[in-house]
Amino acid sequence: MYAVVRKVSKGIPRADFLIGAVPGAGQVGKLAVDHLIVELRADLVAEIYTPAFPPQIYIQSDGVAYMPRFQIYHARAGSKSALLFTGPAQLENGEASYEIIDSVLEMAKDAGVAEVYSLAAYILGKEPTERLVHGTATRPELLERLRLAGVRTMDGGEINGMNGLIFAMASLKDMDGICLLGETAGYYVDALSSKEVLKSLAKLSGIEVDYSRLDSLAAEAEKAIKAMMEEISKKEEASRDTRPGRMDYIS
Amino acid sequence: MYAVVRKVSKGIPRADFLIGAVPGAGQVGKLAVDHLIVELRADLVAEIYTPAFPPQIYIQSDGVAYMPRFQIYHARAGSKSALLFTGPAQLENGEASYEIIDSVLEMAKDAGVAEVYSLAAYILGKEPTERLVHGTATRPELLERLRLAGVRTMDGGEINGMNGLIFAMASLKDMDGICLLGETAGYYVDALSSKEVLKSLAKLSGIEVDYSRLDSLAAEAEKAIKAMMEEISKKEEASRDTRPGRMDYIS
Amino acid sequence: MYAVVRKVSKGIPRADFLIGAVPGAGQVGKLAVDHLIVELRADLVAEIYTPAFPPQIYIQSDGVAYMPRFQIYHARAGSKSALLFTGPAQLENGEASYEIIDSVLEMAKDAGVAEVYSLAAYILGKEPTERLVHGTATRPELLERLRLAGVRTMDGGEINGMNGLIFAMASLKDMDGICLLGETAGYYVDALSSKEVLKSLAKLSGIEVDYSRLDSLAAEAEKAIKAMMEEISKKEEASRDTRPGRMDYIS
Amino acid sequence: MYAVVRKVSKGIPRADFLIGAVPGAGQVGKLAVDHLIVELRADLVAEIYTPAFPPQIYIQSDGVAYMPRFQIYHARAGSKSALLFTGPAQLENGEASYEIIDSVLEMAKDAGVAEVYSLAAYILGKEPTERLVHGTATRPELLERLRLAGVRTMDGGEINGMNGLIFAMASLKDMDGICLLGETAGYYVDALSSKEVLKSLAKLSGIEVDYSRLDSLAAEAEKAIKAMMEEISKKEEASRDTRPGRMDYIS
User: Fold this and answer.
1) d(Cα D73, Cα D75) in Å, to the nearest integer?
2) Beta strands in C50-201 (DSSP E)
């Protein structure tokens, strides 16, 4: 038993969608789901503890200890509602990954969810120019909807870890599964990619939120990266200046 | 729980045999079962998902995502019927291997199967001349039937992985188990070996199919191998021609 | 199933607290719980065997063989009562660690326990001057009680292994969890640190015992360490005396 | 579930003792149990299959395939009766080891067994002179019986693997557990050590058999070892004779 579900609210409220992500490249999916949780003032409805996390306890800045756990929130957005699934890390244990996602999907099914989204990263390995959103799904009919929403469908490849399982295992419970992958360099936290993914999600699900917090996050990240780059180039210049004109010794 | 069985049809139809193989050397068994599935226009009746596969999702060329899984088909061949078991890969997890096969055999038992065949490779490590079929079984009486069908019985050795478990574990459920192993070099996909195995299976079970598709597959493979060999020998010749007549240095 | 519980007494008597520790740095927690077991003349009420220990049997000096196991004792101290949990070693298997602690907490819950303490070490990596006691808990309200008892609350960090799980998992069963960590160098058994932890525990729980046995233990340890240090410095002096006055060669 | 028990006979007959061993150093215990099975014409009553064995099938010299498994036999010896447990190998998986032994002991308990013996090796690392039998047990009272039977009780050490679990876990089911360990060099199969262990077992349990087959086995082994030693010393002599009197080069 890898999934120990603890319901926080009395019963899980009805929901149209399950939207989930755990940390991955560029934190694209995780940041997007966290943004929805904050912007939609979502309520924590359940926690999932698992012995697949290392036996380790963390102490918060206020002194209280906590155990790592996955969380399921419930949110309303206009006439729509969604369960939001997130967690602190991927699990190394593959079997546990399957079981955690199975229990989340079971909960979603019980709540009336018919469509499951997982949000993830499409790693470019270089600075993206447009931050396109790619997508895949569990049925051909869903791909047409993705294309109409401006999402690029794929013709190969694989998705690793829990972000792949979330939407793909949905089909085993007769729910539709869609995965949206935002283009990102992969080597820095990319709030702009999260924003593009959320914009595609909005077109598909009707769940719309304000993105200004993601914009500020991206601006901050850009500033931090710029400062870091300047620091690096200053150091390189300095090291050029102090380099001896002549090599008197070999170190 | 390593075996998550998902019945695709309503109930598993009655069957005389279970015939199974997962990928192994030369793809001998896998190719043979796949051939039966196509030629007998077999119906998918069940899928077996397992957390023993790495948590990874694959995207097909049409854009649809799928999870790796084992499959069970049902086919009729004249007055005979069979369940056909296959899958995308061996499992690294031994315990899961046992459990998957146990669930397949349970399903076969429920469908009335009394005889279980697994199809596999007999690795020669060199080009085979005759492509004999070797065999082993769970009862001495079955060996006599194998010999009458032209199958060479063995006097030692071991069979690794799920292809061994399929027929050997049959005896734990009071079914007969037979393994047919086709001679093959082991380092290329060998459709001719699959054909020989299927011919032995036909003599034993009465399930006969047309083999021309396997012949074409073998012809294509032969052409591809020949082309590759010529390419290699051309390159070797070319490299001989450009070699300096005199060695001026030692690299 | 990693936890095989064997009740030694008929039923587990009622208790106010669960106090637990398994071996860790400086043996601070383990020594403290062992001290309580002896001083309070606690009764063994249950043992927990687990296949997560290596399959190994130990032979005592009296010739009797035993299996490694966790133990739960029951003790009365004035108007208070407690279950005391201890064991021979941390488990390498994280999943088993969770399961063992879960079964201990279940037993505690059934016995009416409302407050769970785990005793552990706060590693300084150098000789401590004051041997302060640090603490964390599962609710902010508990931290105030800790501060009033002179325990330093923390603002970060992590607690590894079963000593972290004991108190943190208590909250999953609606019990309060408190962890007391005694400052210690970390590289020798530290009975004085255990004493300080027990003094803090006494202020919080009202369970008071005589500490003279821990004082003698500390005095013995100090004597042993001193003797070892003198031995080392003697050897160093001796090696200085026999060192050649002049270096005739470089080795 | 690591233990898949398959009863071969209808019900397990009543028994006074369980006597077990799996392969270990010098095959001392395994050989002893196998000897009892043959000499007492024991009946196979149950088999235990386990996914903890690697997924591998073996082919016998008669062509029949079989799966590795543990076996439980039943034997009568005068007024006494015993279950005899043996298997082809130790399991690498500790958890599975516990579970297999648990299921064997459960079966023994159901059959009325009150005393469990495991037979093992006491490794000397050099040629033994007397081949003493050492012993340990789960209760101090049993040690007195061991001493009266000429068995040397121990004052420390550990017993690894399933041979330790067999007798030690007996106490968890309220049966007595005794382990008899025969002195052996450890680097060759030692039928004489098995004989000594069986002689001690006879004194303790009243189960007596003829040992001449073990004597012949030991004589054969001795002859084989002697022949091997002579071969080695001949080769050494020969290599001395052909060694050049003068070294003309350094290789």
Assistant:
1) 7
2) 56-59, 65-66, 70-77, 80-86, 115-123, 133-137, 152-153, 158-160, 176-184
Tell whether A4 is within 8 A of chain C (Cβ): yes
Q: Name the pLDDT band for B11 (thresholds 50, 70, 90).
A: confident
Distance from CA of B72 to the nearest CA of D (A): 21
pLDDT band at D250 (very low <50, low <70, confident <90, very high): very low
Please tell me the predicted confidence (pLDDT) of residue D244. Answer: 52
Contact D168 C57 (CB under 8 A): yes
pLDDT tens digits along A171-191: 999 999 999 999 999 888 999
**AA identity, residue B142:** L
Whole-angstrom Cα distance, residue C206 to residue C16? 11
Q: Which residues of C124-147 are buried (b: 16+ CB within 10 A; e: fewer)?
A: beeebeebbbbbbbbeeebbebbe
Q: Which residues contact B245 (CB under 8 A, 6 or more apart)?
A: none
Residue D160 phi, psi dihedral angles, 5° rounding: -95, 150
List of chain A residues whose C-beta atoms are within 8 Å of the C-beta of residue B52: 94-95
Task: Give the one of A6, A55, A63 whose C-beta lies nearest to C155's C-beta.
Answer: A63
For residue C98, which residues of chain A lie inside 8 Å, CB to CB? 51, 55
- The whole-angstrom separation of Cα D133 and Cα B228 is 67
Residues of chain C under the 70 pLDDT cut:
240-251
D72: its two tokens: 């439980």
Task: Using a CB–CB cutoff of 8 Å, tell me whether A93 touches chain B.
Answer: no
| DSSP structure class, residue A46 | E
pLDDT above 70: residue D20: yes
| Amino acid code (one letter) for A95 | E
pLDDT band at D243 (very low <50, low <70, confident <90, very high): low
- The pairing of strands C56-59 and D158-160 is antiparallel
Q: Are C80 and C206 in contact (CB under 8 A)?
A: yes
* B177 close to B140: Cβ distance less than 8 angstroms: no
Per-residue pLDDT tens for D171-210?
A: 999 999 999 999 999 888 999 999 999 999 999 999 999 9
D162 contact residues in C (CB cutoff 8 A): 55
Residue C146: phi and psi, rounded to 5, are -60, -45
pLDDT in tens, C138-192: 999 999 999 999 999 999 999 999 999 999 999 999 999 999 999 999 888 999 9
User: In this structure, what token pair is assigned to residue A31?
Assistant: 């940041």
Residues A106-122 have pLDDT tens digits of 999 999 999 999 999 99
* Residue B89 pLDDT class (50, 70, 90 cuts): very high
In D35-74, the residues whose Cβ lies within 8 Å of chain B are 49, 51-67
Which 129-148 residues of chain B touch chain D by CB within 8 A?
136-140, 143
Task: For D57-67, write each residue's pLDDT tens digit.
Answer: 999 999 999 99
> Which residues of chain D have a CB within 8 Å of the CB of C57?
158-160, 164-165, 168, 179
Spatial CA neighbour of A194 closest among A122, A126, A144: A122
CB atoms closer than 10 angstroms to residue A191: 25
Q: Which residues of A touch C172 (CB under 8 A)?
A: 4, 6, 49, 67
Domains parsed from chain A with CATH numbers: 4-210 (3.40.50.10900)
Render chain B in DSSP notation, one character per residue: ---EEEE-SSSPPP-SEEEEE-S-GGGHHHHHHHHHHHHTTPEEEEEEE-TTS-SEEEE-TTSBEE---EEEEEEEETTEEEEEEE-SS--S-HHHHHHHHHHHHHHHHHTT--EEEEEEEEE-SS--SS--EEEEESSHHHHHHHHHTTPEE-SS-EEESHHHHHHHGGGGGT-EEEEEEEEE-SSS--HHHHHHHHHHHHHHH------HHHHHHHHHHHHHHHHHHHHHHHHHHHHHHTS-SS-----
